[in-house]
From TrEMBL:
CC annotations in GO: membrane
GO terms for MF: diacylglycerol O-acyltransferase activity
Residues covered by the O-acyltransferase WSD1 C-terminal domain: 542-682
Domain called O-acyltransferase WSD1-like N-terminal: residue spans: 372-421
InterPro entries: Aur1/Ipt1, IPC_Synthase-Related, O-acyltransferase_WSD1_C, O-acyltransferase_WSD1_N
Domain Inositolphosphotransferase Aur1/Ipt1: from-to ranges: 64-241
UniProt topology in membrane: Multi-pass membrane protein
Predominant location: membrane
Cellular localisation: Membrane
GO BP annotation list: glycerolipid biosynthetic process
Bilayer-crossing regions: 27-46, 98-116, 128-145, 177-196, 203-220
Protein name per UniProt: DUF1298 domain-containing protein
UniProt keyword list: Membrane, Transmembrane, Transmembrane helix
Amino acid sequence: MSATHSHGRHLHLPRVRLAAIPDAKRPTVLGEILVGAALFAVYLLVDALRGPGRTAWARDNAAQLIDLERWLHLDVERGLNDWLAARPGLMTAANYEYATTYLVSAALLLVISYLWAPQVYRQARNSFVLLNLLAFAAFAAYPLMPPRMMPGFVDTVASGGTVGSWGSPVVAGANQLAAMPSLHMAWALWVSVMLARMSQRRWLQAVSAVHVLLTLYVVLATANHYVLDAAGAVVVVGVAVGATARLMRGSSGRLPTADAFFLDIETPGNGQNVGGLALIAGSPTYDEIRGLLERHLPQLPHFTDRLAGVRGAARWEPAGAIDWSHHLVEVELPAGSEVGGSGVGGSEVGGPSFGGPSFGGPSFGGPELVALDELVGRLTTPQLPQDRPLWRAWLVRGVRGGTGFCIVMHHCMADGVGAVAKLLCLLEPPYELPVPDRKGPGAVQRGAGVVAGLAQLATDGRPAAVLATGGSARGFATAEVPLDAVRDAARSRGMKVTELLLAATGSAVAGVDPGLASRCGGRLRVSVPMMLRAPGSGDDDGNLTAAVLLDTPARGASIDELRDEVCRKAAPLRSPTRALASRWVMASALRAVPRTGRRAFARNVYGPKYFQAIVSNMPGPDRPFTMAGLPVGRVLPILPPAPGIPLTVGALSWDGHLGITVVTDAAVLDARAVVERLEARLLEPVGVVAQ
């Protein structure tokens, strides 16, 4: 009898999508001011192109343009100008409109989008800069005298004495020969296009259209521009908006190299999937969990995207309707099944069944939970198909007293902490994962840290031995211990919890397989992820951690006996330099490397040549939650091993407990034996001497 059920109901709802998180971040105000200053500096350079010869050139160009408009029957400027000049009050109003509204509307659009629509602001800023640069290039290459400086036209500014308008004494130094294209029209059109991207309200679109038409009338009737100047404005706006939209589509969805790294290392049967297992006290229906996921998909970056161009520059693109029969599957565990072995392979399911845990006890263990571990290992080991969104979830039925909920996403979507931050939105009440409130290094400090870190990484050396790979089957085992007890055990020895976890890991490995510890020279080379999220950044997308390599003793000794050596070896964790260097290589330096080179680099450095285990200690919430209205009892992390690495240990603090997951190469280490020894070492009383 198959243990897997694909839910047969398919209800395809319209896809809701948010802008990618990196594009939604606001740039710094100082940086934007510098961009504006640089743009104005370019204008001044163009304006410096003056002289009698240029003025004559501009007059000849204007005469030719007037002749062309007459031939095209577009020469309406003279009639509009005569009519307006005969009405002094209206003429003055038109002059002030010409002098102010294009500036005010553009400034308001930039400020409003910066404050309330940062995902629109970046394109608005980029297209605004580009359209002005195109216009400045036209001013330099094609000086054009405006109609008001040509015979037969009335200079409404001069006759009306309008303060602040182009040509008036206040701005007498402005470029008088920059009629083509009309920047007034270009800015008005640009504001209209950007407003349409920010809001679909009809009244706002109507007001915007009136503004564009009014600007067109004013620039012609005040004899500041020709009809073809307005046509030139349409061209520069179209080119600028279209080019920036295309460039941002190509770059905003592109997979950063730090995320693509985990695609490059993935091998068949070794899916790089991160996520979690939660036990829910109750039996939520399939439709309740599906509805919960549907409601929160917009808050989960890339949960409605798939990867395209994986062989080249991988990027995210919309995946279309969600196939819920694939992404949310019910798994039934019939009672009375035998508990199987400790290894888990790459098949979909086929694991054992069990009665299940009660939710009141403080500890994890027993044959029922061994069976659950084996099943979760089977579910989360295979690679996720890249022709659809890179996540899956399962409802595990048959758990005594409740329901298991397991969800994973590809490591290219998030690191371990990022996965926790993403999935918190599925729980109630709302909660934001805290980030340590410490000031990050400045640009100079960061640069110096990267240089120092690169030197440190180059001298860290390699592990004492490269361990042979046992096979593709994984061992998967979990445990849960009281968090306060672990903290007390660490504090009483003057250790950090991560240092205690490292000591317990090395001791557990030596206790389970002394021969492995001996082949490692009595020390285990461990990769320890370090969080690099900034306080208040709101970043929960992609990989924002870096790894630090260090040696931890692998001896069958007590924690007290290992304490001094572990604290000394863990010293690199107290300095950010190695983490900064590691992050710089993955996120910046690899951008300059072709995809083939990046893949070769990733597979060379992320594996047994450089480390033998991964130990990750992740912060989590310190309060209880509900899911679909039901209490959440246990939460355990799911982390993937690096290819060829025999051991991965993930620890997640959650509501007063430390959930621990151990993943092993099943042919090399017994995951259950490791997690049991690890649990005992973490809670080991002070003063114990190993036998």
